[in-house]
Write a structure and sequence with these properties.
- This protein is of the alpha+beta class.
- It has helices at about 1-40, 45-65, 210-220, 220-240, 250-275, 280-305, 315-325, 330-335, 340-345, 350-375, 385-400, 415-425, 425-430, 450-455, 475-485, 490-520, 525-535, 540-545, 550-570, 575-590, 595-610, 620-650, 660-670, 675-685; strands at about 70-75, 85-95, 105-115, 120, 125-130, 140-145, 150-155, 165-170, 180-185, 200-210, 275-280.
- Strands 1, 2, 3, 5, 6, 7, 8, 9 and 10 form a nine-stranded antiparallel beta sheet that branches. A two-stranded antiparallel ribbon has the order 4-11.
- α1 packs across α2, α4 (about 220-240) packs antiparallel against α5 (about 250-275) and α21 runs antiparallel to α22 (about 620-650).
- It is flat, with a radius of gyration of 31 Å.
Length: about 700
């Protein structure tokens, strides 16, 4: 089944951003808690980290044991509350009652049920059905389709007026999503007698059974307990080997072997879940994240525990020593600059006045280019500009952040915005692009006379808050709302251009921090000018930085994080001020848009590299590193935490914008592999001052 295996891998890749985010947040939470407890109790960090790791394994095991997916889903016509796993239904008429008092419903030609489940193992659909022939319809089998593919047919006895239980077992077609769409296709007929309906067949109930698919986990539930037992056993063995100086030979080897066995059990659970598929999306994600977190904790423990006696080096230390002794590693080590050489290079940096002059010039050039784009772009023609404007306008006019439940008395776009779109010929111009093709008639020529002065007041500016940008965090929209508050009575076009100008400031700051990032890497002004001017003049990037779009805000935050990452990595030690700045920048960037998550993972790895040491350090140095890491985690959580609570309260989840995250990762890959980008950097670097 190569196609099924390929779809399983693609589905895991689709969920990878969410999985990495959850594992990163769990790791960050565990390390932060360990740092705080170590500072308060003076307990050794390694053992505190081991306790936190065991706690995470216990929590993951409990989560898998308590979050069991529902295996039986029952649907009764006109009763969508019969199961929460039914997320949609179409093609059903109102419920009727037959002569015997039984309730049923006629279907249309196509009756559809959407189940919140998609597995790669057999499922069973059971129906209670009566042939349409008993009501004067044709005696034709009802076709059963799953995700657009025919999987079987139901043919009830046409002479039996009772509802007959029928069932069919099949493997749903994996179309790439997380839901199964079951459709009953019947031959339609019109009953007459003044009934205008086009009828299909009669159904009393439908059940969707995934017990067989889940049996692979149900019959191996001992794996969940085994991971927990092996984790506790390995902790006890490591404690005996370390603190009790146990005379039992090989107890250190047993501790490492026990961790490895637990990791194998966790990996086995992960493989089983991936092979089964999403019985429900929530349980699928929880089981994957929990088993992956358990495997990571146990593998890490197996690598850092002493491999042998209490004083024996760990497997990680042995691997590090073995790699360092290789011949191919010697030239790499020789090329690495010493700390003394790094400090000497830092002492010969250009003076601060020259750098500030460069930054000022970069900002002036970049803001000038973007202001040109602000005025030459037709109103509302930038990418998704209407959606982002609606968000900021909702904040200003209705004094709230858009959130469910939305105000249904208003439209998605305000009356003022809809009228402005009409006055600026938005729709004829929007059709003239590569997606829709050329219009049949010539484009209208207008001077925007009516649009330039149009403005509405009161409820004409109100909307429901359900724009596509509504799920995003509010930081960017609060910033661009500031000039709108000042120009509250101005025409809507003027308020749009004010938001564009505010965004242009953020776009120009991206070039400033790009200069600092490039300068930090090579410590030369030429590299700073190269990257700064490249971003200032790049047409597509300048166009984006001059339109109302939160991508500019997240790009600014990402550039700041890159600069701070390089500074943190090149310094001899991670200072508390730099750690706090990096944590604050990470939280603020997430408040702009969640698509910066991959970069935040890299920033967290840099902080961990600066905190974790392969050799023993004096206790004051250890506490200094722990305080720096604690500041990094605390500032990030405090800046982003309130939005997570807001999101959880109104949306019921913590993962906004992951679909756009996947698209952004693909876009990054395309940009990196574009020769024009690298060529522009090289060309400007060769001619800049």
């Amino acid at each position: 089944m190569p196609g099924t295996r390929e779809n399983a891998v693609s589905k895991v890749i689709k969920l990878l951003p969410t999985i990495l985010l959850d594992i990163f947040l769990l790791t960050l939470l565990g390390l932060s808690l360990a740092c705080i407890l170590c500072v308060l109790t003076r307990f050794p960090f390694r053992w505190m980290l081991a306790i936190i790791g065991i706690g995470m394994i216990v929590a993951a095991s409990a989560g898998m044991l308590f979050v069991r997916p529902p295996l039986q889903t029952l649907f009764v016509p006109n009763d969508t509350n019969s199961s929460p796993t039914i997320v949609g239904q179409r093609g059903w008429y109102a419920t009727q009652t037959d002569e015997a008092g039984g309730r049923y419903a006629w279907t249309q030609e196509r009756a559809t049920l959407v189940f919140n489940s998609l597995v790669r193992k057999p499922v069973t659909v059971r129906v209670e059905m009566r042939s349409a022939a008993v009501a004067g319809g044709p005696d034709v089998p009802v076709v059963l389709e799953a995700n657009g593919r025919e999987v079987g047919q139901f043919h009830p006895d046409p002479t039996n007026r009772n509802f007959q239980p029928l069932s069919f077992r099949f493997v749903p077609y994996d179309w790439g999503g997380l839901q199964t769409e079951v459709r009953f296709v019947a031959t339609p007929f019109q009953p007459g007698n003044g009934d205008p309906r086009l009828l299909g067949t009669m159904i009393r109930s439908v059940s969707f059974d995934t017990s067989e698919a889940w049996s692979g986990i149900a019959s191996r539930s001992w794996l969940v307990w085994a991971v927990f037992v092996l984790a506790v056993l390995s902790a006890g063995l490591a404690w005996m080997a370390r603190w009790r100086r146990s005379a039992i030979p090989g107890i250190g080897y047993a501790a490492v072997a026990t961790c490895g066995a637990g990791a194998l059990c966790a990996i086995a659970i992960l493989i089983l879940i991936v092979r089964i598929g999403a019985v429900t999306p929530l349980s699928y994600q929880i089981w994957i994240v929990a088993s992956a977190a358990e495997a990571i904790c146990l593998v890490a423990a197996a690598l850092v525990l002493p491999f042998g006696g209490s004083a024996a080096p760990s497997l990680a230390r042995r691997m590090w020593t073995w790699l360092g002794a290789k011949e191919w590693a010697q030239p790499v080590r020789a090329r690495m600059p010493s700390r003394r050489a790094t400090l000497h290079r830092l002492s010969t940096d250009p003076v601060r006045r020259e750098i500030m002059r460069d930054l000022t010039l970069i900002f002036v050039i970049a803001i000038g280019v973007r202001l040109v784009w602000v005025v030459i772009m037709p109103p509302w023609q930038a990418t998704d500009e209407t959606e982002h404007f609606a968000y900021a306008n909702h904040v200003v006019e209705q004094h709230e952040i858009p959130h469910p439940p939305y105000e249904t008395i208003y439209a998605t776009a305000s009356q003022e915005l809809r009228q402005s779109l009409s006055d600026t010929d938005f729709y004829p111009l929007a059709e003239n692009n590569r997606f829709y093709g050329k219009p049949e008639s010539p484009l209208p020529i207008t001077d925007y006379a009516a649009a330039r002065t149009y403005s509405a007041a009161g409820e004409a500016r109100f909307d429901s808050g359900a724009a596509r940008a509504a799920p995003y965090p509010p930081l960017y929209y609060l910033f661009i709302a500031l000039p709108t508050i000042v120009l509250h009575d101005a025409p809507i076009i003027s308020r749009l251009f004010a938001m564009r100008a505010a965004t242009a400031i953020l776009g120009a700051l991206i070039c400033v921090f790009a200069y600092l990032f490039a300068f930090e890497i090579r410590r030369t002004r030429q590299w700073g000018w190269s990257l700064g001017l490249c971003l200032a003049f790049m047409p597509t990037f300048a166009h984006l930085g001059a339109s109302v779009n939160n991508d500019t805000a997240v790009n600014l935050g990402a550039t700041v994080i890159l600069w701070l990452m390089v500074r943190a990595y090149q310094q001899q030690r991670l200072t508390r001020a730099l750690a706090a700045a990096l944590g604050l920048a990470s939280g603020v960037t997430l408040l702009a848009k969640p698509t910066a998550l991959p970069l935040l993972l890299a920033a967290g790895m840099v902080v961990l590299v600066k905190v974790v040491s392969f050799r023993r350090l004096p206790r004051p140095f250890v506490y200094e590193r722990l305080r720096a890491f604690g500041l990094y985690a605390a500032t990030g959580c405090l800046s982003y935490g309130p939005w997570l609570l807001f999101r959880l309260g109104y949306y019921g989840d913590l993962s906004p914008g992951l679909g756009s995250l996947t698209r952004s990762l693909r876009s990054i890959g395309r940009v990196v592999h574009t020769p024009h980008t690298l060529g522009s950097v090289a060309l400007i670097g060769s001619i800049s001052p």
